[in-house]
Amino acid sequence: MSECLFCRIISGEIAGNVVYRDEQLTAFRDINPQAPTHVLIVPNEHLTSTAEMGQQQVPLMGRIVQVAAELARQEGLQAGGYRLVVNTGPDAGQSVGHFHLHLLGGRRMGWPPG
Ligand code: 5GP
Ligand code: ZN
Fold first, then answer.
1. What is the pTM of this model?
2. Ligand 2: centre distance to CA 78 (Å)
């Protein structure tokens, strides 16, 4: 049994509001949404963060962004736009140690981020 929260959601051991799943990745709604649409896209295989990323993950990362764009279309975010965010490590506020791309949209956002 994995101790990683997102590995447990991916395996179905913990219920997650899954919106997309394929052999490589899973997308589910954030439990504490920061925007009307807040979806997390994660690799099925455990990867802690971009700090662990190597050449082997390059196609996977492209696929994750492609699925994020597809989900954004499905969520009706095409016109208003959206934000894709990856937090790596403590300074960025990464709170779950399984790589995830945030898809956020449905409201106007500020810049710079907090
Ligand atoms: P981070 O801060 O690491 O970039 O993002 C972690 C995200 O995971 C947060 O937005 C948080 O709300 C979300 N999260 C934490 N625990 C759970 C959970 O059990 N289920 C879901 N769906 N999201 C979670
Ligand atoms: Zn994991």
1. 0.97
2. 30
Closest C-alpha to ligand 1, atom 17: 31
| Burial of 25 (C-beta count, 10 Å sphere; 0-12/13-18/19+) | buried
Query: 31: Cβ below 6 Å to ligand 1?
Result: yes
Is there an atom of ligand 1 within 6 Å of 55 CB?
Answer: no
Q: How do residues 41-87 score in pLDDT, each as one tens digit? A: 999 999 999 999 999 999 999 999 999 999 999 999 999 999 999 99
Fold of 5-105: HIT family, subunit A (3.30.428)
Q: In angstroms, rounded to a whole number, what is the distance separating the alpha carbons of residues 58 and 75? A: 26
Domain locations along the chain: 5-105
